[in-house]
Amino acid sequence: MREIVTYVEMTGSDQLARAEPAPGLALETLDRDSPLVVDLQVKIGSPYGWKCADRTDQQWAAWYAEHPDRLFRLLTFHGEPAGLVAYDLHPGDGVEIETFGLVPDFVGRGLGGYALTLALEQAWKLAPTVTRVWLHTSSLDHPHALRNYHRRGLRTFKTEAGDRT
């Protein structure tokens, strides 16, 4: 399947264009050993063909071993698990949002803009001198994903075309 991967970044917290708050939506620390980490990534990624949606337990164990410093945050809506954010801290004061998404039951409720606002605000607080926050999205992801990223102040810095296998 043909896809375009778009990389977006923000190089200062002052570039964040906050969305209107969504009452009831919160971002909470999630322990990396929580079964919600895998469960939510599968639920979020399945509709879009994310590779993680088909990982075996052994592949998940290898993934965890490859990313020992990844940080997780749980998006909740009125206390219910609604989404996930995963962060990678990179040398040189960069933070990559490796996973961002809402589970299907919460898509289409107008929560994405504020969820991304919370995720970006948290990214800027993860290290004492963060100078860059970035992530990537695919043309096979939710059709409003890239528009949401741009509306929050992230700018495209690279695109790649390819085939998803």
From TrEMBL:
Signal sequence, start to end: none
Sequence ranges assigned to domain N-acetyltransferase in this UniProt record: 25-165
InterPro entries, per the entry: Acyl_CoA_acyltransferase, GNAT_dom
UniProt keywords, alphabetically: Transferase
CDD domains per UniProt: NAT_SF
Organism: Actinoplanes campanulatus
Highest taxon above the source species: Bacteria
Gene3D superfamilies the record matches: 3.40.630.30
SUPFAM superfamilies: Acyl-CoA N-acyltransferases (Nat)
Listed name of the protein: GNAT superfamily N-acetyltransferase
GO molecular function: acyltransferase activity, transferring groups other than amino-acyl groups
Keyword Cytoplasm on entry: no
